[in-house]
Each structure stands twice: as structure tokens, then as C-alpha cells.
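Q: Hi! First time asking for a complex rather than a single chain. Here are the components, and I think there are two in total. Is that enough to go on?
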Amino acid sequence: MADGIGRVRFMDAQRVNLDGFATEDARLGMIAYDSPADPAPSLVVRDGRVVEMDGRAEADFDSIDEFIARHGLDLDVAGEAMALDDLAYARMLVDPSVPRAELVRLAAGMTPAKLAAPLGLLRPAELMIAMTKVRARRTPSNQAHVTNRLDDPLLLAADAATAAAFGFRELETTVPVLDDAPSNALAVTLGSVVGAAGVLVQCSVEEALELELGMRGFVSYAETVSLYGTHEVFVDGDDTPWSKALLASAYASRGVKMRVTSGGGAEALMGGAQGYSMFYLEARCVALARAIGAQGVQNGGIDSASVAASVPKGVRSLTAENLMVMLRNLESCSGNDALMSESEMRRTARTLPTLLAGSDFICSGFGSIQRFDNMFGPSNLNAEDIDDFLAIQRDWGVDGGLRTADTAELEHLRRRAAQVARDVYAWFGLADYTDQQVELAVDAAGSKDLGATDTLAVLNAAHTIKTSGLTGLDVVSALEQCGYPDEARRLLDMLAARVSGDYLQTAAIFDEQMNVLSLVTDPNDYLGPGTGYEPTPGRQAEIDAIRQQRSVDDLRRAQDDSEEFARFAVVGQASAGTAAGEVVIGLSPAVGRAISRTLSGLTVSEVLAEVLAGLEEEGCTARLVRINDSIDLGSIGLKAARLAGSGIGIGLQAKGTALIHRRDLSPLANLELYSVAPTIGRADYRLLGVNAGRHAKGATPDPARNPYSDEAIEARYHTRVVALVAIERSLTTGGGPEELRWKGER
Amino acid sequence: MSGTGGRAWSGREASELSVEGVVGGELGPDDIRISPETLRHQADVARAHGNPQLAANFERAAELTGFEESEILALYELLRPGRTSAEQLRARADELEARSAPICAAFVREAATVYERTGLTA
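A: Yes, that's all I need. Here is the structure of the assembled complex.
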């Protein structure tokens, strides 16, 4: 005997139960909001100097307190902001009459604990409204991970071009082998300029190497500048607030965009939460991010998203973290970048609010490659989910930053990107790749499709890039001389953007005309319904026109089969029969004219062959009659029954739905209904014929059962049904029934 | 190109940058390097858009434009935890002061004091 009951064993076996769920434990920091250790908000300023913050006296400040107190607070508004009632501020966040600027002004004077308090009061829908209002940039966008397990440059380039074609405006790569980093940065940059103009590129590696890659022009932004909410964990990360602030300035000194990274649960994961809640520690990180002068923050769990998600309200707190970044007047790169559940529903539910509300970057890394190739670890969304994401964008009519890429265009871009990478690598003497390797990369859905590759060649290429002093300008020159002038121009534009520094401002991206969209040039102006971002008609068309959509005309063309239609010939007006064993098969108006195949994929003739064989088994005869004044199956079946000598009729719609009827019944009553057309196979139609024959003879048939199915039959077929019914209706002439001759194969 | 344009570190206008110039060797790294004047302008923009901290970052950065990349990397390394003493940090601050980087100098001095108190010195 198995343990427990089958019902619970069945539930235990569902994928969501692979996830870890933790009991709240404040001592370990395994608590989303409101740990007993979290301080009450406080701020004491004496002679213009902060001497107490969030319950801690100046003498006891740790390095994080100290940096926030000295640099992070607007003391001119602090008095007003700290005195504000938490609920009053929470209500302002969702009040359409309170503009973003006012919320941001007040937040600047709030300590970490003070800003955390009202955000803890917001319900999920309120968080979403606030995000819609407070994010920095009006136009939402999205970021992709582009990596592969082999660090193969041709595949990286092809996948970078692909990600750009799908609409991602930032591409983030990283390495399984640290020394490969310069090669990955170069390959993704090359692919990005093939895919689109103005795509930002990042290579996430150790701080100093990432800075060097940025300074040399191999990447155009940086993000892997991690902040933590406790002094100890910060130091474990081998940095201090001052070293991080200097990094921020270092990037700016070379005109390179950067943001920092934090995220709830990180401190608990590293065993250093000191009893504080995840949200309070994140509030410290975000306040510090503002204080050091970063323009934006990647947060919302990130690597520790599943830690946050394991406790009550943890997922809610991840979204609240993103909102907190927005309130600190910073760019939000909103997490959704680590697979936080084995459950399709949980991971979707985690991301949906961000997508619906809109963010500067919906994902701080949508895995544009397959899960196994994501060297950050699988993202919450990956190549497996791109079509899902596109469909969800379309469902809700929201802009998640992505678009459908035409298949032929994708192939062209992938080939060009792989060729560019091969030619530039050859130009610099980094590596030699063959035409066959190019073609493998073009076609590959992932690195498993590349076969055996020479990973040492990548290492050599990376080493040469690092030691030869190559710069981004050298790559521009190589592109031009290898015969890729458009790509050379695009890369030079990205490098030249450093001169003006406009893309250093908050939430800056480029559009494909190289216009900077940022807090400064494209500020969010949401103030309730009818205001704020709306996709342009062109952008809306991109969102709507997914490649899977079909029109009635598309379906009509697919159903056009002259060979099938020629099997049916009109003999004349149908009249009532008298033979005792005669069954009439009533056919819908489109049979033999416009619809050739049923929803299960059989031709109408294949269906008829089975039905007729079943009738023949029972010793019955059959006539075919097309009903021209109704598309209703009950009516078709009943009319057929009234023409049949036996009084038994079969109704068959061209899409495959069928029933058995008798002449003395009302139209909606019938003897047997075969309603789920997509699942009705040959054997079922044979049984239909047999059972109709038995009814005709007065015998008792064994009724048909629906087959086992867990498919979303309606989702798969209802759009086709709508089109097929429209075709049927267009052929309803109102004329009387016609006797048909059918030349089928039995 | 949109935006404020402006002159690169070399003095060349951003609008003068061309692929031909790169291939012909007339353009070099200093032609795609941001100038301190531009960073100070961006600091003004950031301040006008409610972010004085971002402005302060750009002002530190403006001072760092004149430093070699290796020098900046070395300064970063020095500010990481446990790398050096408060005295050495203050000495480095004096060097920064002498090289027209007073904001960065004050920043490093502040770090020296905090590092001493919070155990971040070597």
C-alpha cells in the first residue's frame, strides 16, 4: 500500500513541489518584510550633519550607513519626508493626481527604513500602478542574456544578432571560463551591430576586468557592480561603498553607462542577513545605489530570487524592490532574470506584474538562448519562452520590448553575424573558422548543435585580444576593411556616443535611429488613464503581428483541395427514401466546395469512407445529401434523418463534428454526438457508421466515449472553428438539399 | 546622432567622427573619449533632473578623465577592503589634490576616516 492517498500523491508529483518553500525565520533573514530586528525609521540632523539614521547613532554607523548618511539623503526635504505618514505616502503612490516628480522629491529625503515602510503597505495591484507611474523612462525596454556553454564566437555573434532582431536593446554576456571574456565581449558586440543599430552590450565578469573591457570599447555598459545590505557581506564581496562609488565614476570618466546590482535574499543566502528582513536590507542597497551616483539598479531578487520566493510575500517584495529603485529616481532593470521556480505558473506569475506595469527593462536578462546555454544559469524566461512572451504581450496589448522577427530575415542576420565574426577574427589573426562552422552556427538552436568545437581556439583568441591592446576603434576599422561598412558605422556610433555622454543619464537606451531615450529625453509622464506611454501604431502592429496569426483567407487557402472537391458531384434535388435499411448522411454546405479537411486532419472523404464502411458492416445502405440551408449540425442531422428510409440520419460538418439523429426527435436532441472534432479518428467514424446502422435496424448500439485528453483543445482549434464556420455560413444558399454522388476510395 | 554632441577629449567635434577617419588612422582613442567639460555639463543635467548624487558622480568622473586607465584601476584596487592603511589612503588623496582632482581627494580622505573606524584598512 502506498503512503497517503492517491489524490495527494498526485499533487506531490507536480513540478511546483520541486521548489523549496521555507518557514519564515527572521534570525536567518528568511523573512520578506518586517523582521523584528528591522529598525523604526529615524533621522536626526544636527548642524546639517546626520547624527542618527534608522535608530543607529553616528558613532555606530557601519560603512553603508555612513555612505548613505553623508551622500545619499536630500536634507532639505528630509524633515518633510520623514514626518510624512506612511499610509499617506502609500496613497500618493497610487493617486493619479500626484505626479512622479513629487514622489521622487519626497523619497530623496527618506532613510532606507522610511521608504521601505509605505512600500510594504502596497498590495500587488497598487505596486503595479505605482510602477507604471514612477519608472523613469516612458518607453519600456528589455535586456537579453547572450551566452553559450562553449563560448563559441560564431554562435555568440549569431545569437546576439538574433536577440537584437527580437527587439532587445541591451545584451548581456558572460563566460563559463573567465579568460574567454574578451572574446565573448567582441563576438556579442559584432553580432549586435549586425542585428540592429544602437544595441548596448555588456560582459558580466569580475569588476576590474569588466571595467577594462568597457574602457577599451569592447562593451558599452556595465552592470555587474554588486551592492549588499550589510557591511559584512559587502566586504565579503571584496568591495566597500567607496570602491563601488569609484567604479561608478571610473565608467563615467570614459563615457560608459553603468548600473549596480543588488536584490533581496542575497544576504540571507550568504549567511549575513543579521536578522533583518530582505526588504529592509534591499532598501539599504537601493539608498546606497543612489548615494554612490549610479544611474540605475538591477534588482528584484537576481541570483537570490528563489530565496526570496521561498518565503511568504517574497515574490511581492521583489516587485516592491523594483518600485523602490524607481522612487529613488533611478533606472530599474527589473530582475525576472533567474529561474525562480520549476513551476510554469509560478515563474509566469512572478514576471507578469512587471510586464503589465512596464519597466525600464522588464527583465534584467531574458535568456535569449536556450536554458542549457545560459551561463548565468537559466533565466526566468529563456529562448523556450520567446513565443510565449510575444503572445502575452499581444494578449494584454502591452509593450514588453520584444517583437516578432521574420524567419527569412533572422536567417540572413544570423549568417551575416557569423560571417562578420569569422572575418573579423581572421583579420586580427585571432582564429580561423570554416564555412561549415559558419553554417552550423547559423542553423544552431543552441551550442549542442555545433558538434565538436575547438575551445582552446577561443581561449587563444581571448588572450590575444587582451594582450594585444586592441580597442573598439580597431574593430571599427576591421569591419570596414572586411567589407561591412554598415556594421562599422554602427559600432563607431556606439563608441562616439561616449563623447556626448547623453547615455550616461538615467535609464538611457538608444532607439534604432541612435536617439537617446532616457529620463531626460523620454520622461515618464503617466498620470492616470489616457496618459503615459502608449505604443505608436507601428509599434502596436509589431506587438500584434505574431508570426502564428492566421486569417480566414489563410485558412481558406489551406483548405483549397480541388482533388478532394472533385470527388463530390451533384446528382439533383434530394428526395425522401423508402428502403428500410437506408441511412442518409447529411453534409454541411462547405463539403465538396470549400473545406477539404476536418480538424483532426482527415479529409472529408476519408471520414466518409469510414462511416460508409461502418454502415456496410451493419448491412445498411447510405445516401449522401448536402444540406444547403443550415450550418447547424442538429438541423443537418435531423433533415438527413427525415430523408432516410430508416428514419436514421447522420449529420457531418466539414470540420468533422458528427451526430446520429432520428426523424421524430427535436433538432437539439440526438442519439449520439461526436463533438470534439480534433480528437475524432478513423475508428470513431467507423463506430459512428456502425452505431447509426444499429439504430436503423432497431438494435442497441454501445455508445461512443470521448477519448482521454488533457490538451487545450479549444485553444488549439477555436480560431480555426471560427474561420471554418464563417466559410460554411458564406456557402449557406438557402436552397433545398442536394443528392450527391461521391467517388471515394474504400 | 542626436543629443548634445560636443567635443571629445581631443577637442574634435563628435560630428567629425567617420569610419574613413578611423581606417585612415586620423582618429584615435582620444577622439571617442569624453571630456571633463561634457561630464560637468551632464552633471548639471542630472542635478536639474532631481539627482544630485548622479551629478556628484559625474563631477568625480570629470576629474578622472585625465587619469590613465591603469591609474584608475589602481585607485579602485586601493579602495577595496583591507588593501592599505589610512595613512596611505591620505597620501593618495594628497596626490589627487596635486593633480587637480580635489573632489576625488576629499572622497578618498573620507574613505580613510571611515575605513579606520570600521575596520576596512589593511
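A: DSSP finds six helices and no strands in chain B. Let me know if you'd like any chain examined more closely.
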